[in-house]
Amino acid sequence: MELWQLPVTEVAALIRERRVSAVEVAESCLGRVEAVNPELNALADVRPEETLADARRADAAVAAGEELGPLHGVPVSTKINTPQRGALMSHGVTAMAGMTAVHDDASVAALRAAGAVFLGRSNAPAFSIRWFTENEPHGRTLNPWSAGHTPGGSSGGAAGSLAAGMTPLAQGNDIGGSIRFPAGCCGVVGVRPTVGLVSNWIAPEDTGPEPPLTVQAWAVQGPLARTVADARIGLRAMAGADLRDPFGVPALPAAAPHAGGPIRVGVVRDVGIAKPHPAVDAAVGEAAHWLADAGYEVEEIELPLLAEAARLWSLLLFEDLRPGLPGMLEMADEALRVHMRYAFEHAAGLWGEEPGLAAYASGWARRATLITRLQEMLGTGMLLLTPVSAEPPYEQDADILDPVRGRSIVDAQWPMTSLPVLGFPGVSVPAAVADGLPIGVQLIGGRFAEDVVLDAAQAVEDRAPRIVPPAFW
Q1: Which one, of 208, 223, 207, lies nearest residue 114 by Cα?
Q2: Which residue among 77, 90, 178, 199 is the active-site one?
Q3: CA–CA separation, 196 vs 114, rounded Å?
Q4: Domain Amidase, which positions (predicted)?
Q5: Do 324 and 209 form a contact (C-beta atoms < 8 A)?
Q6: Is the distance from CB of 167 to CB of 178 less than 8 angstroms?
Q7: Given this model, what pLDDT does residue 55 score?
Q8: What does the alpha-carbon distance between residue 162 and residue 156 come to, in Å, rounded to a whole number?
């Protein structure tokens, strides 16, 4: 087996035990990038000499007997909208194509402190807003499973590079499914942590205008990986107390005690917004069966709370974006302009053309009630099992073909949009392959119950068939 094929757990152990060097691992991954990235266009900025210099420093630390972090020597990609000092930070926008970051953001700094070797910047749509990955300066990213289908967005380059073997670990961010949806589309694992667990701090020199409240309160940084075990290591490396983040925690929470007995899993297939595709419904049913086999107490439930949260996403996020929309659209590509038009039309269908301050304030107040109600349910250790999306991976550009289809895609993404509003952790894990495309399922737990959610994701992964794109493995 080639080094690029190995999981994070094995790569880190081999380097730590001096059985392979970090340079050998980096060279293997760079070779893989050279072989497959020209076709997929998942990584937008790869600098081999810088990567190899990082790897040589990692090997020198091993030779000197220094204390090694959990990701020492492991190649990791970072996203083009996330500050990494000296690296491209174009946001997928031509006007920003030459921008580089002055500092690491907190999540990248945590990866660096854990010993990661940075290997490329993953592609994303303009301003990381669409569920599709394409932009003017860097072009379109293809799904390793099918060139005609999206790798997801906005962390589509991260998920595609993982599925094709370019890196074993990737950093992404998520405010509407941008980690979890690409993971589902590409057959990898994506973790959206509880808000505050991974610091979202960015140095003032790299922030630009102060982000709107929804971005501050909902956006998270998190890992994508090929296995649940690797995603767990990535999350532990990224997590940390950081009070510079206004929503950060003062100390990492301890795991919540479990009262004993089987953990309950509520299966939520449909919340009345978008009927699940048969392949999606079958994947959720299979995952429910596997969880029952693993000893979980599984039951079908209805949870209209999630539908309400998904509707609030369209109110609060888009009202926050409205003041800056003209400037954004001036810099955006045509695809994002069309996407935003359809998304605002969708929101108007729910809330009216201009909902106003009273509706906005009421939405924020209602959000607090929904969070409390969900935590009362899940804080006992209970989990939810949902689709990743009501539909399998979409055809490329499906969101901008016509207004009806564009609006229906927002509806189908209710499992992706409801969770950021509420701030709970969710994990996307591959469960099936249908018509040549991977289908993921989502597991949701109580706040700061990431380990409980990851344990359940591991139970699904242990029972699922091996899910890798056949043309690349």
Answers
A1: 223
A2: 178
A3: 19
A4: 24-454
A5: yes
A6: no
A7: 98
A8: 10
Q: What is the pTM of this model?
A: 0.98
| CA–CA distance, 217 with 324 (Å, rounded to integer) | 18
Residue 122 · residue 37 · CB < 8 Å = no
Catalytic hit among 79, 122, 128, 389: 79
Report H helices in 150-223: 156-163, 180-186, 204-207, 213-218
* C-alpha span between 193 and 111 (Å, rounded): 16
Chain centroid to Cα 201, Å, comes to 17
- pLDDT tens digits, residue range 358-416? 999 999 999 999 999 999 999 988 999 999 999 999 999 999 999 999 999 999 999 99
Instruction: Say how far apart CA 225 and CA 209 lie, in whole Å.
Output: 31
Q: Is 408 a catalytic residue?
A: no
pLDDT of residue 253 exceeding 90, the answer is no
Condensed to tens digits (0 to 9), the pLDDT of residues 314-337 reads 999 999 999 999 999 999 999 999
**Cα–Cα distance for residue pair 460/469, rounded to 1 Å:** 19
Strands 383-387 and 437-444: antiparallel
116, two tokens: 């990661």
d(CA 399, CA 343): 9
CB 83 within 8 A of CB 174: no
Query: Is 28 among the catalytic positions?
Result: no
Task: Return the structure tokens found at 238.
Answer: 């990224």
Catalytic residue (one of 21, 154, 199, 418): 154
d(CA 176, CA 153): 9
For residue 259, name the pLDDT band (cuts at 50, 70, 90).
Answer: low
Burial class (CB in 10 A: 0-12, 13-18, 19+), 2: exposed
Nearest to 269 by CA among 256, 258, 278, 257: 278
- For this structure, is 389 an active site residue? no
Contact 162, 224 (CB under 8 A): yes
- Partnered with residue 186 across adjacent β-strands are none
Residues 185 and 393: beta-carbon distance below 8 Å: yes
Domains of the chain as residue ranges with CATH:
3-463 (3.90.1300.10)
Name the phi and psi angles at 168, rounded to 5: -85, -10
Q: Is the pLDDT of residue 250 over 90?
A: no
For residue range 203-240, list pLDDT tens digits in order.
Answer: 988 987 889 999 999 999 999 999 999 999 999 999 99
Identity of residue 46:
V
- Token representation of residue 223: 């890992």
Answer for the pair 76, 119: CB distance below 8 angstroms, yes or no: yes
